[in-house]
Design a protein that fits this description.
The structure is a homodimer of 262-residue chains. With 262 residues, chain A is α+β, with helices and mostly antiparallel strands. Chain A has 2 domains: 3-67, Arc Repressor Mutant, subunit A (Orthogonal Bundle), CATH 1.10.10.10; 74-254, Chorismate lyase-like (Chorismate lyase), CATH 3.40.1410. Chain A has 10 helices and 10 strands. In chain A, the strands form 3 sheets. A 6-stranded antiparallel beta sheet of chain A has the order 4-5-6-9-8-7. In chain A, strands 1-2 form a two-stranded antiparallel sheet. A two-stranded parallel sheet of chain A has the order 3-10. In chain A, α1 packs across α3 (41-53). The longest helix of chain A is centred in the first third of the chain and has 14 residues, at 3-16. Chain A is elongated. Chains A and B meet through α3, α4, β7 and β10 of A and α3, α4, β7 and β10 of B. Chain A binds a DNA duplex (19 and 19 nucleotides) through α3.
DNA sequence: GAGTGGTCTAGACCACTGT
DNA sequence: CAGTGGTCTAGACCACTCC
């Protein structure tokens, strides 16, 4: 076993044993830890890199290395879809009070800050296939960033796609200044005569790309959950595709599958 | 911007531009790349570490650095639960033919190899809470490893928990040599008079622990999906809890949520 | 055995954080 | 300004893969 692995194992064991608790600073790389382990700085740093990749240690330039605190989870359920559907036909006053994210998280509209950007794009192959239209068809791309009011980085970035021709039926849907829209996308679809039959969600996890790490304020070595939501209308079409990137270490997705009785 | 970041950016751009395709070997670290970028070996390796963390490059000791091939996905749907329930009361001959994993992946029983280990444990706080029993209550812990016949490492490790007193009602359930059980857990529960009402799944993503990376044969820096499945019976009890760890870069979870009509 | 990546050293200098 | 981590060098030797 390599020296840096032995050091990483030992530090991990000391942390698990409680020698340093969550939020505590570890001894300085130089001269403390290099001295304790009788090693050079690069080797010690390689050991620390292992613990950072495992999510055990946070490095902070100029301050020190810290035992990572467990992150506060953001929960996202699949019950939100039925909830949002039930709400889509309520009066605006009701819809304005709270959205699906608040429903999941138990927060209020005031705790969260939204930012929306809209643009028209031509459908790439992958999206065109889902919508069953030719590549190059016009799509409305809407980018949403949601963050806690007290935090700087958003905790999710979502990109939603609608057929441009379809969205155009109601010019208000093309106006980003009307976001956050009371009642969400299902209400928007309702205003143009569309009812959803089911929502399909596909989930994978992977390391963040450079751009995502930047956008979500993630440390190198954590994971993101990539969720693609595909909304099917009652007349059998795909009417919305939404790609959401969530920080893996602070998101919990909850799906409930009801079963029919024997 | 640091030198190693510039090098990483340049290499990433060259890969995206197709200078090397999926599966191709990059030029040797020494002397090729260090020469091209006029840098020392450690700095070049730091640049490569960035690309490995992003999942763009695979390092293979003694062979070279390779552009990563797009991973083959293993799909897991939530329709499997209803499918398994429908199957639970079928004759053994029908149940024996295929299981839920094969249903999801389109593979046959012959493509997959199972390994099962059983033991009796005392419920830790976290599990006791879910089952609504006192901590220390006896649980049957069943560990399953599934792998492709041609691969060495399993693609998932699952740990399933049942109340020991409940499982004991049918001694066959305590016998690991009877696995894989035709019809899966829902058929096992059927034999002791239990019907499921719904299945709840909670999902997070995180870096693998040392033990998981080892067990699943993962490279450092990839992500795992941790899925906890909680099965609720028609009489309102939690009857099974199952923890599954899946390699994030080759698993796609698909959840379909049907919506009731307006 | 040739080629390739993996580990490690000793030390210099830069950049960030907090007092 | 002191303390801390971040970057970088030049080179030695080890371990793995494949011919």
């Amino acid at each position: 076993m390599a020296k840096y692995e032995k050091i990483a194992d030992d530090l991990r064991a000391r942390i698990r044993a409680g020698e340093w608790g969550p939020g505590d600073r570890l001894p300085a790389e130089t001269p403390d830890l290099t001295g304790q382990y009788q090693t050079s700085l690069p080797t010690l740093r390689q050991a620390l890199a292992v613990l950072v990749a495992e999510g055990v240690v946070d490095k902070m330039h100029g301050r020190g290395n810290f035992v990572r605190k467990p992150r506060k989870l953001v929960v996202r359920t699949n019950e939100r879809h039925q909830w949002e559907k039930d709400r889509a036909r309520q009066p605006e006053e009701t819809r304005r009070q709270t959205g699906a994210t608040e429903h999941d998280t138990g927060l209020t509209v005031l705790d969260l800050v939204f930012k929306a950007e809209f643009r028209r794009i031509e459908a790439p192959e992958s999206l065109a296939g889902l919508f069953a239209v030719p590549a190059g068809t016009g799509l409305l791309e809407r980018t949403y960033r949601t963050r806690y009011r007290e935090e700087r980085e958003p905790f999710n970035v979502a990109r939603s796609y609608l057929l441009y021709d379809m969205a155009e039926a109601s010019p208000e849907l093309l106006d980003p200044s009307r976001e956050p829209w009371p009642g969400g996308t299902q209400n928007q679809l309702f205003t143009i005569g569309i009812e959803l039959d089911r929502v399909e969600e596909r989930i994978t996890a992977r390391p963040p790309t450079i751009e995502e790490a930047d956008e979500l304020g993630l440390k190198a070595g954590v994971s993101v959950i990539a969720l693609r939501k595909i909304s099917h209308s009652t007349d059998g079409r795909v009417v919305e595709v939404s790609d959401v990137v969530l920080p893996g270490d602070r998101t919990e997705l909850v799906f409930t599958t009801p079963l029919s009785r024997w």
